[in-house]
Amino acid sequence: MNLIWADWPAPPTIKALCTTREGGVSSAPFDQLNLGDHVGDDPQAVIENRQLLLNKVALVKPAQWLKQVHGVDVVTARSDQQIRQADACYTSESGVACVIMTADCLPVLFTNRSGSKVAAAHAGWRGLADGVLEQTLLQFDDPSEVMVWMGPAIGPEVFEVGQEVYDRFVDDLAPSRDAFKPSPLHKERWMADIYQLARLRLNRAGVCQIYGGGLCTYTDSDQFFSYRRQAQTGRMASLIWIEADE
Question: Domain 3-242's class?
Answer without folding.
Answer: alpha beta
